[in-house]
Amino acid sequence: MNWTGIIIGAAVFLSIGICHPITIKLEYYFGRKGWWGFNSFPAFVG
What we know:
By secondary structure, this protein is mainly α. The protein has two helices and no strands. It has helices at 4-30, 35-45. The longest helix is centred in the middle third of the chain and has 27 residues, at 4-30.
């Protein structure tokens, strides 16, 4: 059985679960001013 898809799916699920509360708090405290950090983050990773 190929476990790669299950592992990738679990990693994505965990990363969304961890980052979602951070996004909600950032938007609550700073409004849309903090979106540049989330929009530019993939440029640093990829």
